[in-house]
Amino acid sequence: MSDTAPQPTTAAANPPVQPLESNLLPSDVVRISATPDVPQPTRQLTKVAKLIDVSKCIGCKACQSACVEWNDTHPEIGENIGSYENPHDLTPDMFTLMRFSEWENPATNELEWLIRKDGCMHCEDPGCLKACPAPGAIVQYSNGIVDFIHDNCIGCGYCVTGCPFDIPRISKVDHKSYKCTLCSDRVAVGQGPACAKACPTKAITFGTKDDMTALANERVEDLKSRGYENAGIYDPEGVGGTHVFYVLHHADKPSIYSNLAENPRISPIVEGWKGVTKTAGMAAMGVAAAGAVLMGLFTRNKVEPEEEEAAERLVQDREGI
Amino acid sequence: MHKPLYSDPADHIESTDPVRVSRYRGITRLNHWVTALSLIVLALSGLAFFSPHLYFLTGLFGSGQIARWLHPIIGVVLFFSFLLLFLQMWRLNLPKPEDTTWVSRIGDVATGHEERLPEMGKYNAGQKFIFWAMSVLIVVLIVSGIMMWQQYFAGLVSIPVRRVATLVHALAAVAIILVFILHVFAAFWVRGTLRAMTRGDVTGGWAWRHHRKWLREVAGRSSKGPAE
Ligand code: HEM
Ligand code: SF4
Fold this sequence. Notes:
CATH superfamily of chain B: Transmembrane di-heme cytochromes, Chain C
Distance between the termini of chain A: 100 Å
Strand order of the largest sheet of chain A: 11-4-13-12
Largest sheet of chain B: 3 strands, antiparallel
Strand content of chain B: 5-15%
CATH architecture of the largest domain in chain A: 2-Layer Sandwich
Helix content of chain A: 25-40%
Number of strands of chain A: 13
CATH class of chain B: Mainly Alpha
Mean pLDDT of chain B: 95
Bound molecules: protoporphyrin IX containing FE, iron/sulfur cluster
Distance between the termini of chain B: 7 Å
Order of helices and strands of chain A: EEEEHEEHEEHEEHHEHEEHHH
Largest interface: A-B, 54 and 60 residues
Mean pLDDT of chain A: 95
Strand order of the largest sheet of chain B: 1-2-3
CATH topology of chain B: Fumarate Reductase Cytochrome B subunit
Low-confidence stretches of chain B: 224-228
Structural class of chain B: mainly alpha
Helix content of chain B: 55-70%
Number of domains of chain A: 2
CATH class of the largest domain in chain A: Alpha Beta
CATH architecture of chain B: Up-down Bundle
Shape of chain B: elongated
Number of domains of chain B: 1
Oligomer: heterodimer
Largest sheet of chain A: 4 strands, mixed
CATH topology of the largest domain in chain A: Alpha-Beta Plaits
Number of strands of chain B: 3
């Protein structure tokens, strides 16, 4: 007999050695792409979160390596194009990427080297899931994790269109969409994400959303006491908050961190496309089809025998027969 | 030789007793049916992505992946196939003064009182509307569709542009399906029309009733055989 895994509250703990049953089940799903009226689970998992403290990151990319190793992806060998970023963008084989930017602080005239770990934010209100047309290709668990179920993915790229953070990438090999899973397979057995476990400076920490928020607040206080007046938390309200969130030393200017979105939300165009367009479109097509069938059944426009005769006379006159 | 105003040079009287008027050559009919089939395949595969309630339509194609792969490819087929039809038909679909009268008496059109309508050339205002609506919508669909096409054009436009393209594509798709419903309905409702696209000809009575100006022009030159 094996026990059920605990809900993880940290990535620092070492894995238990006995076999454990998964604690992240299909029945814990609260949202399913292209599926209205999902039956709501009977239990609520503790909301989890990954906190990325940008001020502590040294850009070593241990998290990227851990991610590649755990997810068994095989990114292509990179090329140096004069940037520390490697690869140069997120790819279907690279779910997280350290983005480097050089920023001249106008207040101090000093050059700051800003390093941000990019990847899926695990939005509370995920645009990818909203846009997805394939039932069951994207799910959201009650602990906040947004996961792609590749068996159901059709590779249309609508998640790319829906995501406010430009995260999902479609594979040219199997034509399915890939992104960070928040290590849902590790979380299921009581483990924190691989990146958080690998980070040598604890710039990445993992736990319950409440714990992580408390930690983030502590960090912000500390940064403020060191002169970073604008230090703050990036947990954007526009997408209902996220389950991967940042501590930024310049929280008033997210865009200096390699174009981190200022006010992310699901685009109103995407909302309109998936909302009123669908309802009104289905209604219009249904009414038109039904109307055509009814009018076709009950009325017709028929040629009379006199009209055939008239045509005969016309043609014979003209032809001079 | 000047071009006829209300008919295609190839239209001709096939027989006089009973009267049969040739309306479409075999190659044009084939062209039409390739276009029609493409449009149906596009509507069925596209609608599968349009609504979760219609996702089951992917079953017609084997799987969602296959439907996703096939849809834009058939889109390109549709575009070129329709282009050929367009080149053959655009001239006779240009607006004429009698079209205004026809539209203003749309009630008589719907109740089949054709005797109260002006005489029409090869196409009436309704047919012209369908022609131009299809032309515009197919251009909108191919342009927006290519912007959405992940497999070959993933980086073509930025994500904000792709959002607009997707919305436009969905709206244009609904519009073209409505036009398609109207087109198919009209072809059935007006009895004797379908054979123009199957056998290629229509009866004299049909031509007299619905397109008398066309019939007059074709009959007028038919003793000399197909014109030019
Ligand atoms: C003319 C060339 C066309 C191209 C290149 C094209 C391309 C596309 C692409 C790339 C998609 C996304 C799904 C996928 O990747 O397969 C799509 C979706 C769609 N297409 Fe097309 N398409 C074309 C014509 C049409 C036509 C004629 C119709 C309607 C009869 C249509 C209806 C749709 C619909 C309803 C959707 C789903 C939109 C949504 O999810 O809201 N398409 N098309
Ligand atoms: S960041 Fe993008 S991919 Fe991740 S949950 Fe939000 S919308 Fe989906």
